[in-house]
Amino acid sequence: MDKQTPAHRVFVTGATGFVGRSVIHALRTEGYGVRCLVRRGSEADLRGFGAIERVEGNVLVPGTLEAAITGCDTALHLVGIIREQPSRGVTFERVHVDGTANVLAAATAAGVRRFLHMSALGTRAAARSRYHRTKWTAEEAVRSSGLAWTIFRPSVIYGRGDGFVSMLAGMVSRLPVVPVIGDGRQRLQPVPVEQVAEAFARAVELPATVKQVVEVAGPDAVTMVELLDMIGAALGRRRVLKAHVPLGLMRVMARLFHRVPSFPITPDQLLMLGEENTCDARPFFSTFGVTPVPLRAGLERMLG
What we know:
The chain is an alpha/beta fold. The chain is built from eleven helices and 13 strands.
């Protein structure tokens, strides 16, 4: 099918999020029609995007999905959370597991042929964190769906408006001393949001990626300490002073205060911070024709 025809539409969940907005741009650049699932009240988050369809719905409300997805031949499922809000019914199980099952069911009923799914690096059956375990359960549902699926597992995704590197940059800018949890030696492999979005858009018509799990990362694996220094350099700060907070103390504080919205970390996030978040990124670059962006250059572009 010619992707330039109006019939070739891509249905996107999580379109109003940080990654979703970049994915919309990448899909439009590739010439696809884009239909975005939008929760009531969040329409303004897509202000400025022309030539896209907006349909109201919620991945947690199955009845809103089938009609919304009908007429699209690809579904791109980005919805996920990094922090739960149990009082509002927003949990890993509901969003990652039930939400994915709902979208898969609607996609199957609507005759969707292609399903692209956002997971996370570190996802596995026996993961320590509930975040990763529920992501694994969602992946298993995708794999057993019968659709032509591709699963993406990115490391930390960075860019303007992200929730992690921007937070660290704010700390480096404002604080005379930046707190570091534990020894800060666990490695991560940040990847620019634009390259993640390009990979999703190119995967739509890339047969080699069907029924494949793709690990996504940038070219540089760095420790948290090194990342803070690189952020400091991008901001023109000659030296970033750091104070190491014992992991045991943070575990106690996280258990006591994680339900307070302003407290920066949860017990589940602490489990993830204690693990390496790296992979061999060469297959990602070669499969999608993406040119690696050195982390230092990416941070300078983002923060400079």
